[in-house]
Design goal:
Shape: extended
CATH superfamily of the domain at 19-192: Ferritin, core subunit, four-helix bundle
Largest sheet: 2 strands, parallel
Strand order of the largest sheet: 1-2
CATH architecture of the domain at 19-192: Up-down Bundle
Radius of gyration: 29 Å
Strand content: under 5%
CATH class of the domain at 19-192: Mainly Alpha
Length: about 300
């Protein structure tokens, strides 16, 4: 059960309206790294988690993310408040009102379509989607995804801090950025509290392939680091050795019933290309300057 408390989790003070900045702030409202995506990610994970202690962690952070959504939404609404009133009441001349709305970004879209509110879109006007919730139902996978999500969100907050000189907004954004760090630490603790957390899942990897690094980059110098050097890795640079690594011939095949084999052969025969043909095509008939080499069109006698 959720209860709405009318006090924000963190006090927000906006110096003056700024519709363009409001559009940028929407990235953390309805964007892929935003607070709604985080809340839904952790909420749905918490519902399915079989560990009651970890479930509390996920539900706690999901609920906090909703409070962060309220903070960002409040910032967006306050930044749009001046343009919202001017547009609703038509108190300016058309040119002045247009200039207010089109300060930059998608601010005009936000003002016209959403009345200066806080719509569930990102800074480019793309609607929020559940596709942002990338949970897969395995705690070791989901916790790693959560750690990465918190890291990405911190970077977005850093960038938003860098594009505003409003001290009140900077202060609120620093709070939200700092909470991303706290959540990342909590998720890392939860991940490493699972004794066997790598590799994810239950089935073991084949060491023959789990310890192999395929050097697929041609040319010098060869890039090296702890990801492909040392006793942990068997580096394969030879091109021939990178093919058919299972020891087979590298082909593909399927066993078909007699009827399926007959119909597939009939289809292949019917659609067989003639490698000796030089057919005249529409591109040849309509070729003009810049068409490149085409099949010559026979001229009438």
């Amino acid at each position: 059960m959720f209860i709405h408390n009318k006090k924000l989790m963190y006090t927000v003070r906006v110096a003056e309206p700024n519709p363009a900045l409001a559009s940028l702030m929407l990235e953390q409202f309805g964007g892929p790294q935003g607070e709604l995506a985080a809340a839904m990610r952790y909420f749905t994970q918490g519902l399915a988690d079989e560990d009651i202690n970890r479930r509390d962690l996920l539900m706690d952070i999901a609920t906090e993310e909703l409070s962060h959504l309220e903070i960002i939404g409040s910032i967006v609404s306050m930044l749009n408040r001046g343009a919202k009133g001017r547009l609703a009441e038509g108190v300016e001349e058309e040119a002045d009102l247009y200039a207010t709305m089109t300060q930059g970004g998608e601010s005009h879209t936000t003002t016209l379509l959403y009345g200066g509110g806080a719509p569930l879109i990102n800074s480019a006007g793309v609607p929020w989607t559940a596709a942002y919730v990338d949970s897969i139902g395995d705690p070791t996978c989901d916790l790693r995804s959560n750690i990465a999500a918190e890291a990405r969100a911190k970077i977005v907050y850093e960038r938003l801090i860098n594009v505003t000189d409003d001290p009140g907004i900077k202060d609120a954004l620093r709070f939200l950025m700092s909470r991303e760090v706290a959540h990342q630490k909590a998720f890392e603790k939860a991940l490493y509290a699972i004794p066997d957390n790598f590799p994810p899942g239950k089935l073991p990897a084949d060491p023959k392939f789990a310890d192999t690094y395929f050097d697929m980059s041609q040319g010098e110098p060869t890039g090296e680091g702890p990801w492909n050097t040392g006793e942990q890795w068997d580096v394969v640079s030879d091109r021939d050795s990178q093919m058919a690594v299972d020891g087979g011939d590298g082909s593909c095949e399927v066993k078909l019933s007699g009827f399926d084999a007959k119909t597939v052969k009939a289809f292949a025969d019917r659609t067989q290309s003639d490698p000796t043909a030089q057919p005249l095509t529409g591109a040849d008939l309509g070729a003009g300057p810049g068409a490149g080499t085409t099949t010559p069109v026979a001229k009438p006698d």
